[in-house]
TrEMBL record:
The lineage of its organism: Bacteria, Bacillati, Actinomycetota, Actinomycetes, Micromonosporales. It comes from Hamadaea flava. PANTHER family: DEHYDROGENASES, SHORT CHAIN, SHORT-CHAIN DEHYDROGENASE_REDUCTASE FAMILY, PUTATIVE (AFU_ORTHOLOGUE AFUA_5G14340)-RELATED. It comes from the Bacteria. This is SDR family NAD(P)-dependent oxidoreductase. GO terms for molecular function: oxidoreductase activity. Its EC number is 1.1.1.-.
Length: 255
């Protein structure tokens, strides 16, 4: 059973919020009493997710946001503050995976695309979240890295570069903003049963049996398990936790 939190009166902003870990986290924030802004590039799915949470009676705002476009991120954060008056918590989850590639053969445009979303997108999101939180003197941000931010794997150079970069952003900004009352941390998910992972399995880009065998817990993670970690990092229970890269990976990186 997950702990329960009372985030009444708080405002959360989640990127990549229309499916997978982002949606599970947005849902968990809403169930804990927070007002939630759901930001995603896919207008149709973010609209559906917004309707789902509105049906639960939660204060919700759905916004289209392309994290690779800083102006789009700025507009989404501005809309959130305009709607709810403040910003207390953020989960920067939006990210993509790309097919495995020999490092000598990977096209530059693939490297640029994965880093534009996975790394630059986190940078832009954190930048504009911090601009608001700085005026408040409080806040908590969780950036989504990956087990790929902690280790390397053959065929995944561009993706792992982006996720290692997220941890550099996190630790540096965490040191800068901890004295100002803002905590910044990262989660490093293992292989989680999300639509993106399902798509990779369907395309033959990921072997399910191998993925399960690589996690000592002998199963894929669930999006709700990432949400639980994010909520804890945003909660008063983690008030002395700053700049960590928290593996939530079924033991993958413990070996």
């Amino acid at each position: 059973m997950n702990p329960t939190y009372d985030f009444s009166g708080k405002v959360a902003f989640v990127t990549g919020a229309s499916s997978g870990m982002g949606l599970s986290t947005a849902r968990a924030f809403a169930q804990s009493g927070a007002a939630v802004a759901l930001a995603d590039i896919n207008e149709a799915t973010v609209a559906a997710a917004t309707e789902e949470l509105l049906a639960l009676g939660s204060p919700v705002l759905g916004v289209r946001c392309d994290v690779a476009d800083e102006d789009s991120v700025a507009a989404a954060v501005t809309a959130t503050v305009k709607q709810f008056g403040r910003l207390d918590m953020a989960f920067n989850d939006a990210g993509i995976q790309v097919p495995p590639s020999d490092a000598a053969d990977e096209p530059a445009e693939v490297f640029d695309r994965v880093n534009a979303i996975n790394l630059r997108g986190v940078w832009a999101s954190m930048k504009h979240e911090l601009a608001q939180m700085r005026t408040q003197g409080s806040g908590a941000i969780v950036n989504c890295s990956s087990l790929g931010g902690l280790v390397g794997l053959p065929g995944r150079a561009a993706y792992h570069a982006s996720k290692h970069g997220v941890l550099g952003l996190t630790s540096s900004a965490a040191l800068e903003y901890a004295p100002r009352g803002i905590r910044i941390n990262a989660v490093c998910p293992g292989t989680i049963a999300t639509p993106m992972v399902t798509d990779m399995i369907d395309k033959g880009e990921l072997d399910l049996a191998e993925a399960v065998a690589n996690q000592p817990i002998n199963r894929l993670g669930e999006p709700e398990e990432i949400a639980a970690a994010v909520l804890w990092l945003c909660s008063p229970g983690a008030s002395f936790v700053v700049g960590v890269a928290l593996p939530v990976d079924g033991g993958y990186t413990a070996r």
